[in-house]
Specification:
This protein is an alpha+beta fold. The protein is built from 5 helices and 5 strands, in the order βααααββαββ. The protein has a single domain (2-129), classed as Ribosomal Protein L22, Chain A (Alpha-Beta Complex). Strands 1-5-4 form a 3-stranded antiparallel sheet. The protein has a two-stranded antiparallel sheet with strand order 2-3. A hairpin with a 5-residue loop joins strand 2 (81-85) and strand 3. InterPro entries: 4-PPantetheinyl_Trfase_dom, 4-PPantetheinyl_Trfase_dom_sf, ACPS, Ppantetheine-prot_Trfase_dom. Its EC number is 2.7.8.7. It comes from Candidatus Symbiobacter mobilis CR. Mg(2+) binds at residues 8, 62.
C-alpha cells in the first residue's frame, strides 16, 4: 500500500557555492559516516564528482523526508538517513537510530531513484507500507 511519494530537484551550482563558502561543513552536516567516506574519496579524485555526489544525497534525503511526511523534523535528520549504493549501483536507503525505529514500526519500505544531469540533481522516492515482510 502506498504510504507517500517525494521528489526533489537540487541545483548543483548552489551546492558548489555552499561548499566554496563553508568548506566541508555542509557535507559534515548532510552526510552520514558511510556517505562521508565516499564523498571524500570522490572529491579527492575529482571535485565535480564529489559535488554531484553531495547534491544527489541532499536531494535524495529531501525526497525521502517528503515521502514519509516528516520533512526535516524528528526523528528525520540528515545523518540518520544514508543513501548508499548496492553492489549493482542501485541507491538504497539505510536508516539509523530513532528514524529507523520509527520507519520499522510502521512496516515501511522505500524505493529511490537518483539522477544528475547538467546543473541539476534529482530524486524520486516512493514509500510503501508492507503488511508482513519488506518488498
Amino acid at each position: 500500500m502506498l504510504y507517500g511519494v517525494g521528489t526533489d530537484l537540487c541545483d548543483i551550482r548552489r551546492v558548489r557555492g555552499v561548499v566554496e563558502r563553508h568548506g566541508e561543513h555542509f557535507a559534515l552536516k548532510i552526510l552520514g559516516e558511510a556517505e562521508l567516506a565516499v564523498w571524500t574519496a570522490r572529491s579527492q579524485r575529482n571535485e565535480e564528482r564529489g559535488l554531484r555526489y553531495l547534491a544527489t544525497r541532499f536531494s535524495a534525503k529531501e525526497s525521502f523526508s517528503k515521502a514519509i511526511g516528516l520533512g526535516m523534523h524528528g526523528p528525520m535528520t540528515w545523518r540518520a538517513c544514508e543513501i548508499v549504493n548496492r553492489p549493482g549501483g542501485q541507491p538504497h536507503i539505510v536508516l539509523h537510530g530513532p528514524l529507523r525505529e520509527w520507519f520499522d514500526a510502521r512496516q515501511l519500505v522505500a524505493h529511490l531513484s537518483l539522477s544528475d544531469e547538467g546543473d541539476y540533481a534529482s530524486s524520486f522516492c516512493i514509500v510503501e507500507r508492507c503488511d508482513g515482510g519488506a518488498a
